[in-house]
């Protein structure tokens, strides 16, 4: 029996699928364009958030967020429909893809940026182009263009690197030839040890009934850091760079955001300590502050 995917609503993934036996399943522009058309349709239908993609001759790379909880259904629909079209076009039969798609859970932050850059620079490493934006069958050539509205989240990726120029400069400097992952009994993860524990816990809880109360949707969502910060700012009516942490109220709000970043964005204490808001605190003090604030909230 196949084991379930390590995923949950809100999880970010780097996903790949290859042609069986190394077969070139996207050998020409017609095949690459067709799978991109299917991709546009499927992300809309299954409500999956697409952040980056690259179609090579014998495989593809997607960076996406499982926003609907229908990740496997999305890939089953995409791959089966493409395989049927591919075999019809060449009057062939049999399998097209090498087994199930491969997925790696990704932690937000540096790990996520690395996965984006790795995906976009595939054609450069393969010697097909000198710059990733020159390759027609990846999202690097599409970010910010109006025709991607509704199926490719350009703004999230561009904001991560500042703007399009920042993204392309980062891609030009990128030299990694592989992705460093952790193998767990449940699947592969790109992230630190804290994230692994949080991710496995979220995965385990999604199928465990709560005898006391219905589980909240956000118990299983890891949200982008920017979204957590923005929602915090909107609810408090203040920008975090305007917080006066020399006052009691400012310290309370900073502690509250720490808990949100840890629980809803899945950030490690190290990642949080690198934010300007926490730069004056010792790294070792953050776990204690987190536990103290959580205990205070639970005691209310």
- Mean pLDDT, to the nearest integer, reads 86
Q: What is the CA-based Rg, rounded?
A: 21 Å
Count every helix, treating DSSP H or I runs of 4 or more residues as helices: 11
CATH class of the largest domain: Alpha Beta
Which residues sit in consecutive blocks of at least 5 with pLDDT less than 50? 207-221
Number of strands: 6
Order of helices and strands: EHEEHEHHHHEEHHHHH
Label the CATH architecture of the largest domain: 2-Layer Sandwich
* CATH level 3 topology of the largest domain: Alpha-Beta Plaits
Can you list the strand order of the major beta sheet?
2-3-1-4-6-5
* CATH fourth-tier homologous superfamily of the largest domain: Transposase IS200-like
Strand content: 5-15%
Helix content: 40-55%
Number of domains: 2
Tell me about this structure:
The protein is elongated, with a radius of gyration of 21 Å. A six-stranded mixed beta sheet has the order 2-3-1-4-6-5, with helices on both faces. The chain folds into two domains: 12-173, Alpha-Beta Plaits, CATH 3.30.70; 223-295, no CATH class. Helix 1 runs antiparallel to helix 2 (71-89), helix 5 packs across helix 6 and helix 9 packs across helix 11 (285-298). Strand 5 (182-184) and strand 6 (187-190) form a beta hairpin. It is 43% helix and 11% strand. The protein has helices at residues 29-45, 71-89, 110-120, 122-125, 154-161, 164-173, 193-205, 225-236, 248-264, 269-273, 285-298, and strands at residues 12-18, 49-55, 59-65, 102-106, 182-184, 187-190. The chain has 300 residues and is an alpha+beta fold.
């Amino acid at each position: 029996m196949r084991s379930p995917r390590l995923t949950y609503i809100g999880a970010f993934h780097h996903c790949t699928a290859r042609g069986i036996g190394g077969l070139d399943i996207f050998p020409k522009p017609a095949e690459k364009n067709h799978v991109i058309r299917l991709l546009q349709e499927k992300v809309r239908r299954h409500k999956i958030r697409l952040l980056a993609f690259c179609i090579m001759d014998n495989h593809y790379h997607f960076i996406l967020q499982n926003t609907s909880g229908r990740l496997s259904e999305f890939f089953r629909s995409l791959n089966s429909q493409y395989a049927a079209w591919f075999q019809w076009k060449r009057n062939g039969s049999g399998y097209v893809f090498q087994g199930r798609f491969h997925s790696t859970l990704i932690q937000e932050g540096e790990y996520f940026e690395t996965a984006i850059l790795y995906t976009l620079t595939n054609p450069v490493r393969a010697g097909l182009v000198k710059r990733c934006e020159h390759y027609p069958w990846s999202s690097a050539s599409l970010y910010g263009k109006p025709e991607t509205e509704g199926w490719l989240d350009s703004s999230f990726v561009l904001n991560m690197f500042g703007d399009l120029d920042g993204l392309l400069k980062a891609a030009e400097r990128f030299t990694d030839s592989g992705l460093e992952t952790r193998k767990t009994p449940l699947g592969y993860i790109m992230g630190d040890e804290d994230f692994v524990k949080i991710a496995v816990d979220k995965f385990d809880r999604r199928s465990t009934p709560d005898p006391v109360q219905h589980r909240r949707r956000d118990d299983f969502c890891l949200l982008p850091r920017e979204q957590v910060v923005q929602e915090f700012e909107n609810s408090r009516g203040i920008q975090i760079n305007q917080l006066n942490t020399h006052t009691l109220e400012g310290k309370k709000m900073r502690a509250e955001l720490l808990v949100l970043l840890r629980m809803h964005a899945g950030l490690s204490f190290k990642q949080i300590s690198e934010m300007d808001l926490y730069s004056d605190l010792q790294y070792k003090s953050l776990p204690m502050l987190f536990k103290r604030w959580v205990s205070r909230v639970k005691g209310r």
